[in-house]
Amino acid sequence: MSLLESQVRDCQSTIRENDNKIKRYEQLHDSLVRFKGNVSGSQGQFSSVNNTKKSLVTTLEGYSHACKTAKEYSNGMNKVLNGVGITYVNCTFSALLFTIGLKLAEYKGKIQVLEAQNVALRATIDTLNDQIRQEASAKE
Predict the structure, then answer these.
(1) Which listed residue, 62, 75, 85, 114, has the most CB atoms within 10 A of its CB?
(2) From CA 52, how far away is CA 100, in angstroms rounded?
(3) pTM for the whole structure
(4) Domains of the chain, with CATH numbers?
(5) Tens digits of per-residue pLDDT, 52-77?
(6) H or E stretch covering 101
């Protein structure tokens, strides 16, 4: 085996390795897309439940003029449903979705780099094969 043929085999091996990495990044990307959908759904469900509770507390406030317990309960629930904890939960969902978006972009970037490397390696293989043919023609 000539040096050129060895270089062709090395390029082919690197392409196979890159293809395996691409498949793995695509699997990770797809899994993360599904997870992002779950997180978005959970965020929506949380918001919906919180809004329903707010609505119930608003209804209860209508009775607070007649009942001190209802007034205290609705004041407390308003603090809970509109307070810092809710802000933290919403910020956590937003931060998680943002981080997932960054990781998805990272995976796409890695896939694009590997695909570009494969294109360059295939061009190198074509060039090496041309040189091998030229050497074979020169020997004849």
Answers:
(1) 114
(2) 28
(3) 0.80
(4) 3-139 (1.10.287)
(5) 998 988 888 887 788 888 888 888 88
(6) helix 84-139
